[in-house]
Batch of 2 targets.
Target 1
Amino acid sequence: METPGSQTSLHRANLERVVRAVRMAGALTQAEIARSTGLSAATVSNIVRELKESGAVDVTPTSVGGRRARSISLSADAGMVVGIDFGHTHLRVAVADLAHRVLAEEAVPLDVDASAEQGFDRAEVLVGRLLAAAGIGPGKVIGAGLGVPGPLDAESGALGPASMLPGWTGADPGKEMADRLGVPVLVDNDANLGALGELIWGGGRGVGDLAYIKVAAGVGAGLVIDGRIFRGPGGTAGEIGHITLDESGPVCRCGNRGCLETFAAARHVLPLLTPAHGPGLTMERVVALARGGDPGCRRVVADVGRHLGSAVAGLCNLLNPSRVLLGGDLAEAGELVLGPVRDSVSRYAIPSAARRLTVAAASLGPRAEVLGALALVLSEMGDAPLIGGRAGGAGAAGGARAGFAGSAGFAGGRRGASLPGRSFTP
């Protein structure tokens, strides 16, 4: 029996600190482990040796600043994680190991009018196909992260009425996919996962306070405060698309008038250009035309940027973030949209907040959400199964499954984590 404060309990706590640091980063040198955990170099060296002997970690030679070092990562046999991103018109799935290596990834179209049941079935098939392609048995998967385009009820895990997927309201994607995959599934909205992906492996690395704004069929924001995703008590923080810009404006799907979404989301913007460019126009095509010099598309993109900038200015005045990252197809417009965003920020935000703000395009592109889903599950899994014995084989995967910090959805599990920024190996 471990007694609190005993050498045994202290040793186990140190083991968990080291394993968690490596798990969150993917790979660290011993010096980096010492800095991130606060443990002495000698203690880290002893723990790494113990973990290596048990098979929990792999140690490979590397160099830092021209000096030889050893890179520590979790064993390739310790288990695999799955990321699933349901978009308005797409489904993207990725499989990664605990050393943060993406082993398989694929995106397929998703019929926006498909039922939730059809979407879950499609995801189950795609996960199975990727696991088979990567030569991974189902028993090796220890958990999955899942993103959806809409707010989730913090207690039930169900999708709210503002979801961008018609017919999915009330669906519980965490429970449904957990039943299909046989592993715990953690769920968050796509903007939060985009923010998490950028925070760990993209344009938000090293930034403690930022906002990731995704402009697609809807408009949402993932907020990072003091290095953590902020969701609010009900899980709906960041619904920036429903900030009112014009009380007499168009009726929004939320029931209000003149929301930002009615001036910036693709479903409202594209009809403005249909008379000139015909039906079937996409935001991707609008951005390409704008970059090619089309005056109407350039004007619409700039107008969207100005509207977004008004909302960003409000974020500046309330939260004072140091960075705002724009995601979604619109981000590909570059300065055609970012310039007007900055103009509105400089006009409406408190000068001291605007001066400290960097507005840029997100760097992960359409992968941000699925990489954020992987980051979510990596941040929530427990460390105990990895240090309780040899971390290999189906037994380790099953143990890690039991030690997961949460079950389907967020019920009973932690809702956020502060993660160090490291490079993800695609």
Target 2
Amino acid sequence: MADYTSKTNGCVTFDVTDVPFGQYADKVSVLSSSANAPDIYGYDMPETANYASKGVLLPLDNYLPEGWKDDVLPATLTEGSYEGKVYTMGVQQDALGLYYNKTLTDQAGITVPTSLDTAWTWEQARDAMLKCQQGTPGSPTVYGLAPTQLGSGTPGPVYSDLLYLRSAGDPKAPSDSSAYKTFYAISPDGKEVDGWLNTPEAVEAAGFYQSLYNGDKAVTSKTGRPNAFLDGKACFDMFHAGQVQPLKDAKVPFDWGVAPLPYIKTPIVHTGAITVAASAKSKQADAAAKFVVAVSTGSAAKEYNQKNGRLPTLNSVYKELPEFQEPPQSLFYNELEKWGQPRPPTTHFSQYSQIVENALKNIAYGGDPKDELDQAVTKLSPLMSR
């Protein structure tokens, strides 16, 4: 927590408490109700509605710089808000891209798209992955698509795998249509999933997702292999911009690039990354709010994004970082601008995320797509309606 006793130079010192990611929600629940609540929280941005609804976070609307809402990425504004108020501004963003081993794709005679307007559908992407894959079906020596590094390293993370289902929808369709509901995967008030998560379009997309792991057209593995792409044992890899610098640092012995993320009907990438917010129960609420604003804007935001290679949330910061305006970082930022959508916003995001992840994992392992999605809806519905 912050110490504001220094009056001579205006310095603020912080005591930082690190909490394992899996224990964070429980820790916040305990600390936020204590007499000595933290001044600042750092957390995963999709949890904003959850924490704001419980009174954990301080609204920042009275502290926002003029013009900020016009400068920030639309998905960041949506994700950092709850019931019309802004609770976090975001210090970084993430978006998934399709990394490719250019040495392998060239050998296979594959031309990979590198602009959003030429992005592959998932059918086209799977065809390319099958063409590039080496070895026998079920036991490749080179995977078409690297086993995921996200989440626990097994199939199902909402951040990546729910995109298959959502991309089968259409946000421009009538709002009462299953195509529209498929794209959003949750009702606007965050309380309903029946008819949103288990639509016919979602079930069909889940069947395609399952085929990536099973049968004659399988291109990836149900078991993790964290370094498959770095080791040259995979043609493609779904990962966010955080892999750019490790690839450069590793000086891998192959050429590589990044393609836009494939889609089924509608291009989409999930947004959301670690962010900071002020505590509603902070004894230094004014200073805490001003700190959040300071680190989320201007030179502080620019320095953070530049040093850490993380995508900016502000267009003004993006324009001041020439390295982000060149591929592959520019492609990730373009995805954020044009395709970015928050993960389904709800005050029960942790439960939503875990239950949907388990359903997708079961589908990848061979479970019936309709049954698994219907079971997820059955588990979620009583929770979401609270």
